[in-house]
Amino acid sequence: MTTIDPAAAVRPGTPVAPPKHLVELTVDGETVRVAEGTTVLQACRSAGHDDIPTLCYGDTLTPKNACRVCMVEVEGSRTLVPSCSRTVDAGMVVRTDTERVRHSRRMVLEFLGSSTDLSVAANVGRWNEEYGVDTERYGSERATKAQPVVRDNELYVRDYEKCILCYKCVDACGSQWQNTFAIAVAGRGFDARIAAEYDAELPDSACVYCGNCIAVCPTGALMFTTEHDMRAAGNWDESRQTQTDTICPYCGVGCQLTLHVQDASIVKVTSPSDHSVTHGNLCIKGRFGFQHVQNRD
Fold first, then answer.
1. How many Å separate Cα 168 from the centre of its chain?
2. Pairing state between β 156-158 and 183-186
3. Cβ atoms of 67 and 109 closer than 8 Å
4. CA separation for the pair 254, 259 (Å, rounded)
5. Mapping DSSP to helix (H, G, I), strand (E, B) and coil, where does residue 268 land?
6. Average pLDDT of the chain?
7. Which of 101, 89, 59, 44 has its CA nearest to residue 273?
8. 3 state SS of 125
9. Are 49 and 39 in contact (CB under 8 A)?
C-alpha cells in the first residue's frame, strides 16, 4: 500500500504558483536562458559575468536603484538600465562592458568617491582602478565628508562620512526584515541623511540593536565598535582572520553565526545571507552577545 505524506499533499483550494517559463536573451553575445522574472543582473551572473559592480544591491532586499553603478546597455533602450532591478524580456540583448557603460560607471564612482569616504567599501578600490576613476576631478571640496563619528552606544558606531544613501539599512530595519522602523531618511535634497526616526537620538529611538543595518551596509557607515576601533588603531587585518560557523546558543531558533576571529578574539559576528533561518539577520544577542566568550576573568 502506498503511503502519502500529508505534508507533501496539496489540499483542495490551496493556490499553486504557476510554473515559470524560461526566457532567452543575449548577454555580451552569449545566449542565456533564465526563468521569467529574473533580473538582468542575475542573468548576467548566471552567464559568468560577475564583474558588474553593485553597491546598493543586496540579495535579501528589494532593489532600490539608488547607486546606479550597475547600469548596463540594453539594445533598443534610450537610456542605460539598472541591471539590479530590470527584469529580463525574451530576445533582450544586453551589453555589460561598452564604452557608454564604462563611462557611466566611472562617473558614478567619481561622484560617490568625491563626496563620501569609500576607503573600506568592498571592491571599490579595484573598480576605481578598472574604470580609471579620478575622485579629485570635481575638486577637493567634499559635500558630506567632515562629519564626526557618532558613538552613542557600545555596540556599533555611525560614520556618515561613508554613507551613500543606498537605503539598505532603512529597508532592513523596516518592512522587509526587522519591522522596527527605527531608521529613516531625514531632510530633503542635499540635506537628506540617514537618521533615527523623527531624527531622534538613537538611544531614544525604537532601535533594538539587532545590527541588521550593519549587515547590509556596503560602505562601513555602520560598523561594529570593535572593528571601527581596530581599524583606527591600525590593527584590523582580515588576512589574519578566520571564520567559523556555529549555531547561536541563546535560544532554540537555530540561527547560524559566523565568528570572525583575529588573534584568538572574536572581532565581529555575521550570518550567511543564504541561510534558511536567518537570511543574514540576527538579534542583539546573536550579533553582539559574544563578549562573554572571551571574558578572561
1. 6
2. unpaired
3. no
4. 15
5. strand
6. 90
7. 59
8. helix
9. no
SS3 247: strand
Tell me the residue ranges of DSSP E strands in 178-271: 183-186, 193-196, 222-224, 242-247, 256-262, 265-270
The tally of domains found in the chain comes to: 2
Per-residue exposure over 188-217, b if at least 16 CB sit within 10 Å of its own CB, e if not: eeeeeebbbbeeeebeebebebbbbbbbbb
Residues 247 and 285 placed together within one structural domain of the fold: yes
Residue 108 DSSP symbol: H
Positive or negative: CA dihedral 54, 56, 58, 61? negative
| Rounded distance between C-alpha atoms, residue 42 and residue 48, angstroms | 10
Grid coordinates belonging to 90: 525574451
Do the domain assignments include residue 183?
yes
d(CA 28, CA 51): 13
Nearest to residue 286, comparing CAs of 209, 180, 218? 209
pTM of the model: 0.86
Please name the helix (run of DSSP H) or strand (run of DSSP E) that holds residue 81, with its range, or none: strand 81-82
162 and 69 together in one domain: no
CATH code at position 268: 2.20.25.90
239: cell is 588576512
Question: How many angstroms separate the CA atoms of 183 and 199, rounded?
Answer: 9
- Span of 58-72, 124-138, 183-197, 206-220 with lowest mean pLDDT: 183-197
Domain carrying residue 218: 156-294
